[in-house]
Amino acid sequence: MGHIIIYIHDLRSSGVTRDAMMLAEHCAAFHDTTLVAGHGEGFFRDAVERAPYRTVILKEAASPAASRITAAWPLRRWLKTQPPGVIVSMGNLGHATPHIAAQGLGRFPRIYRISNAVTRGDGLRGALRMRWMERLVADAARIAIVGAALGRAPMLARSLETGHAVEIPSGVDVDHALAQARAPSPHRWFEEDVPVVLGIGRLRPQKNFELLIDAVAIARQGRRLRLAIVGGGSADERSSLLQRAEAAGLGEDFLLAGETGNVFAWAARAALFVLPSRWEGSSLALLEAMAVGKPVIASRLAGDAPLVLGEGRHGLLVGGERAEELAAAIHVQLSGAAVRPGDRARDYALPSAIYRGLIEDVLAEMAGGVRSAA
Question: Is the pLDDT of residue 132 over 90?
Answer without folding.
Answer: no
